[in-house]
Amino acid sequence: MPEAASAVPHWRTLEDHLPLAEWDHLARSASEPNPFGESWSLLPALRRFDGGDRVELFRVRVGGELCGLMPLARQRGYYGYPIPALATWTHHNLFVGSPLVRRGFEDVFWRELFRWADANPGAALFLHLDRLTEDGPLFRALARVAESEGRAWGVVQREERALLQSELAPEEYFQASMSGKKRKELRRQHKRLSEEGTLHFERQRDDRDLDEWIVQFLALEQAGWKGRNGSALADDPGTRDWFARTLHGAAANGRLERLSLALDGRPIAMLANFIAPPGAFSFKTAFDERYARFSPGVLLQRENLDLLADPEIAWCDSCAAADHPMIERIWREKRTMVRVNVAIGGRVRRALFRQMLRAETRGKRQGA
Q: Domain range holding 224?
């Protein structure tokens, strides 16, 4: 294999010198799809949310070809503790932290990242990797490389969230996942909702009327509980602009799917999926709470089961919190996401980290 080489420029510098076509090619050849790390998603997020200009993009080339990319930031604190760490950069609306790594180069990527972090730890006590898929090739490669190097590491948090993955057809899955009583109730709600006016469902994978769709989605979300507690996307100009730019980027790259349920032409439930074969990601959803008694969000998710009939899609990540009361009524599979800490630097730093890791992972499965 040709020699690997890594570089860690500031993202603004890299933005001027890394052709987007090369970045996009990496995303489409990655061992694990992650739309949140693709250029059309990550760059708008960095422009809006990296207020301190502190994010660097670790990248690996093998034989001159881009084979890995991951945003990194140096954190002064660790979940409320004054412990500095080198960490995956994330933001509030990023639900997967896996790096983009070309298939077959997983071990090379982690070896290069660990080697660079050893040489450039700064004040960081350890490397913190956020929201990796536990059953994916990247996590397995991380464990393999860390073990081969005698490097302490451990899973410090593990969380399961709903996943859609089945060989069943959409209607078969629906019947298997929900009891007859619940299906009967949903049919009743659909019938009663239809009596309120003309009910229309629409699915789109292009950019037709996208600006209007975005405005409607933001208004629908803001009118609900997120608007009341100030966490709606439209509550902040930065998140509103980021959302619009991200959806336009996804559409331009063939990654966006939009679902809408409308009553008399007015949306009452909306959903944006990111399509990243062989997976998909249920990114954002909103519904009109005035019609909550009809379960419009659940009715829309029933339509979303058609992903099971897409030959390019093997699974869909809900991107939802664990034990989500709505999506887990329908989706029965689970995806386990983990946060991992890894030793870096010299002997003293690693000894201190090992003590911290032992305390933090006591009673948990870990790698050291």
A: 166-313
